[in-house]
Design goal:
The chain has about 130 residues and is mainly β. The chain contains no helices and eight strands.
């Protein structure tokens, strides 16, 4: 059965120094620290690689974050993988649960998350499925 979860989150991105002098200047690495509220009460930690271009509002990023907490009353953890592209201001973002990453009562979790940013506030919508028994 498909279930919807929604709420808000706070995010802190911390830029990191290049891993080495061979890291291209156009690529940056950031640490992700989030707190989710609403149907997902959780914290997450992760890493992001981002790349900008000479064209305004064109960029890309990939990220992986581990989410630990309670999703609609079920506790455990899971991993989200992000792939984002911005082409001259037109975004395309996919955030998916990594297969078989769910633990505890979230074992078997599959799903996709959408991020909404309005007036500087971050919100999420999460469409997911879980096995009936846990």
């Amino acid at each position: 059965m498909t279930t919807h979860a929604k709420g808000t989150f706070d995010v802190n991105l911390t830029p990191q120094s290049p891993d080495s002098s061979s890291q291209p200047a156009a690529i940056s690495r950031l640490l992700i620290d989030k707190q989710f509220f609403g149907d997902l009460e959780a914290v997450s930690k992760g890493q992001m690689l981002a790349a900008g271009t000479a064209v305004t509002d064109s960029a890309g990023y990939v990220a992986v974050e581990e989410v630990k907490g309670v999703l609609n009353g079920r506790s455990g953890s899971f991993i989200l993988q992000h792939t984002g592209i911005m082409k001259r201001g037109q975004p395309h973002l996919t955030i998916s649960v990594v297969p078989d990453s769910g633990t505890g009562q979230l074992t078997g979790l599959i799903g996709e998350m959408t991020i909404i940013i309005e007036d500087g506030q971050h919100a999420y919508e999460f469409i997911y499925s879980l096995p009936d028994a846990f």
